[in-house]
Amino acid sequence: MSNKVHNWPEGVGRTVLASTDSTMTEAARVAASCPFPQWIMAREQTAAHGRRGRAWSMPKGNFAATLLLFPTEPPEIVALRSFVAALALHDTFVTVSGRPESFALKWPNDVLLNGGKVAGILLERGKGHLSIGIGVNLAEAPSAAQVEAGAVAPVSLLSETGAGVPPEEFLDILAPAYAHWEAQFTTYGFAPIRNAWLDRAAKLGEIIRARTVTEEHHGTFETVDAFGNLVLKTAKGTLSIPAAEVFF
């Protein structure tokens, strides 16, 4: 593939930094002074974080970027953009690898490659803005010791598929892919996003575990509902779970 920018979305900025503490932190810093959508990518992060403040490892050659948006919908609608980002990532992985069968989407915010975690998504809301952070193991995966016990083992795109993709080239494919799904979302609502996500869902119809802050539930992953909640069929009945860690 070339280094050409692939149909970069109109009206969206593109910033590539040699190094920063965190692209999420950088997005928060620039939100007030540059109030337009933009992608902020860094070749190196010195203080990156994932969900619940967990440290995010970033070996050299991996991808870290944040999409800064200024949505006006209610918070519960804004939060559904994690599904939009997941679909964009899936499309990007298929484009760079040519292997649609190898990738799946894990509720609520991961992308799997051959059953291992290759990418994660993090949403953070600020005053008037939304930051969608995306981390991808392009070249190297963190060690299993760096992830929570029982979590999906990390893998890299390079080791699993042989596809060596520079981070900036990955960004140039991801940005238009996200713009496509964002247009679907803002035009038609969550329904087409939900259907597309379910078509790519990992472990749909299978037994999984969903761990909330206070409980752990075992059951069959039935669907994702119209609000983005995980729907689990358990021995005690059907549960709709808005937030949890999922284990296979």
What does this structure look like?
This protein has 248 residues and is α+β, with helices and mostly antiparallel strands. It folds into two domains: 187 residues, BirA Bifunctional Protein, domain 2, CATH 3.30.930.10; 41 residues, SH3 type barrels (Roll), CATH 2.30.30. Helices cover 27% and strands 28% of the residues. It contains six helices and twelve strands. The strands form two sheets. The protein has a seven-stranded mixed β-sheet with strand order 1-2-3-7-6-5-4, with helices on both faces. Strands 11-10-9-8-12 form a five-stranded antiparallel β-sheet, with no helix packed on it. A hairpin with a 4-residue loop joins strand 6 and strand 7. Helix 3 crosses helix 5, helix 3 crosses helix 6 and helix 5 crosses helix 6. It is globular, with a radius of gyration of 17 Å. It starts with 12 loop residues before the first strand and ends with a strand.
